């Protein structure tokens, strides 16, 4: 259910890359984007991430997240410079500096940082399937219970979405007659505010919640039947890479991390 | 089988905890990314994730609200394509649920199923945690000025969460009284 947002699942080298390595590289790049580096250096990191996203997910999948964050980027560009008035003035109104070189650089730095973070997360989520992710988190010592919660929740989201749609449609059908009356009464059905809309949603949410929480005991029984809660070591239907391919991906992860660290030391 | 059936109904059992957390997490995710109320002037929308977080805090307690609130909203961010906000949602909404749940737990020992003023105190504390958390995280990601612009929206969303969660909690407890026995 995550795949449609991030485009079609592929079989590229990044898709097949070990998810543990991808988590490490995600953290490395995130730290890089938060470091107080020169704008040119941050720009190179952004260019590398953008190039990887274009190569492995396609140009459309670079534009999609950028379109989503465009309003925030515009806000950053407009609102950041007036808060930083140091340095040579580029634009002022009645001797009040509005745009300075430092303000402009700070705005660009924030734009590069946020775009980079967005793209790196997009690349990560677009090339990693949720099951592998849960397994990788377990490898990093995430408690079994939490990874199980994550897996079951991902399985149940479509079910609860379906319940919500059914309940909403049922409520709409029930209210169909009342809506007809409202249309006949002038302004009655049109001037509904946000509070009214929220009030209309409450009965739907009540039904959805009751239908959902009633599943808890049944699901608990199903899990116990499958041995959840026992002390013995659990086996897994799926497993992460082992042997030569794990070593290869580990070496690649270490090399990329070392390159990033060296570049940070050489060009701070 | 009867023994198994009886054991699984104990709210403290690991399987019960996992199943309740998973269902509440899924509910929070669906309320966050699917149930949206449009705001006409700005063409934005209010999501009702906070309704689910406060409901969980009032009914299931702080630990459930911490995990369901944090993981549920993080999953919703990932599903909606805003995965860059997922770690922040995990932390901020998790803390919001924890704080609200801890305060609401004081009322739990007294009255069951009825409205408590502690719920409002819990919601106010949760709102402060959520708004402060997003402001701090937003300042790191996009700068203080852009993060400040988001503040009214977050406040409005929390207000909708409180306005929705209180009647919802009362309605669910009245319509389905066994819900209070599912707390662990």
Structural description of this entry:
The complex is a heterodimer of chains A (about 270) and B (about 180). In chain A, α2 (about 20-35) runs antiparallel to α5. Chain A is flat and about 70 Å long. Chain A has two domains: about 5-130 and about 245-265, no CATH class; about 150-225, no CATH class. Chain A has helices at about 15, 20-35, 40-55, 60-80, 100-125, 130-140, 145-175, 175-185, 195-215, 215-225, 245-265; strands spanning about 90-95, 95-100. Mean pLDDT of chain A is about 85; it is low at about 185-190. Chain A is mostly helical and about 270 residues long. Chain A is about 70% helix and about 5% strand. Chain B has a single domain, classed as Arp2/3 complex 21 kDa subunit ARPC3, CATH 1.10.1760.20. Chain B has a two-stranded antiparallel sheet with strand order 1-2. Chain B has helices spanning about 1-10, 15-35, 50-60, 60-80, 85-110, 115-140, 145-175; strands spanning about 35-40, 45. Chain B is built from seven helices and two strands, in the order ααββααααα. With about 180 residues, chain B is mostly helical. The longest helix of chain B is centred in the C-terminal third of the chain and has 32 residues, at about 145-175. In chain B, α3 packs parallel to α5. Classes of the chains: A mainly alpha (about 270), B mainly alpha (about 180). At the A-B interface, α4, α5, α7, α9 and α10 of A face α1, α2, α4, α6 and α7 of B.
């Amino acid at each position: 259910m995550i795949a449609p947002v991030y485009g079609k699942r592929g079989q590229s080298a990044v898709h097949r890359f070990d998810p543990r390595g991808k988590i490490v590289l995600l953290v490395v790049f995130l730290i890089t984007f938060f470091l107080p580096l020169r704008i040119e250096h941050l720009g190179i990191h952004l260019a590398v991430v953008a190039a990887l996203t274009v190569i492995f997910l396609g140009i459309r999948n670079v534009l999609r997240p950028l379109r989503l964050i465009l309003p925030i980027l515009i806000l950053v560009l407009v609102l950041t410079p007036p808060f930083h008035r140091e340095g040579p003035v580029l634009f002022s109104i009645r001797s009040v500096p509005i745009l300075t070189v430092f303000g402009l650089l700070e705005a660009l730095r924030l734009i590069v940082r946020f775009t980079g973070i967005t793209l790196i997360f997009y690349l990560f989520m677009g090339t990693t399937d949720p099951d592998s992710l849960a397994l990788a988190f377990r490898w990093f010592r995430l408690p079994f219970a939490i990874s199980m919660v994550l897996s079951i929740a991902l399985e149940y989201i479509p079910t609860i979405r379906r319940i919500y749609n059914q309940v909403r449609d049922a409520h709409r059908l029930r209210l169909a007659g009342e809506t007809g009356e409202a249309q006949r009464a002038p302004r009655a059905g049109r001037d509904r505010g946000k509070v009214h809309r929220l009030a209309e949603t409450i009965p739907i949410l009540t039904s959805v919640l009751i239908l959902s929480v009633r599943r808890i005991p049944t699901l608990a029984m199903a899990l116990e039947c499958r041995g959840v809660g026992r002390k013995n070591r659990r086996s897994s239907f799926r497993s992460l890479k082992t042997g030569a391919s794990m070593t290869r991906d580990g070496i690649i992860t270490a090399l990329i991390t070392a390159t990033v660290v060296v570049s940070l030391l050489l060009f701070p | 089988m009867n023994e198994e059936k009886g054991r699984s109904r104990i709210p403290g059992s690991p399987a019960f905890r996992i199943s309740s957390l998973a269902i509440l997490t899924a509910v929070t995710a669906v309320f966050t990314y699917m149930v949206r109320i449009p705001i006409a002037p700005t063409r934005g929308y209010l999501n009702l994730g906070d309704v689910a977080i406060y409901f969980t805090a009032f009914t299931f307690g702080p630990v459930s609200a911490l995990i369901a609130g944090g993981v549920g909203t993080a999953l919703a961010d990932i599903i909606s394509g805003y995965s860059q906000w997922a770690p922040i949602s995990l932390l901020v909404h998790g803390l919001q649920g924890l704080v609200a749940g801890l305060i609401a737990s004081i009322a739990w020992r007294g009255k069951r199923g009825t409205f408590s003023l502690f719920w409002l105190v819990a919601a106010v504390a949760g709102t402060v945690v959520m708004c402060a958390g997003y402001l701090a995280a937003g300042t790191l990601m996009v700068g203080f000025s852009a993060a400040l612009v988001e503040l009214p929206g977050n406040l409005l969303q929390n207000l909708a969460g409180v306005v929705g969660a209180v009647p919802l909690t009362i309605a669910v407890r009245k319509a389905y009284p066994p819900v209070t026995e599912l707390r662990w």
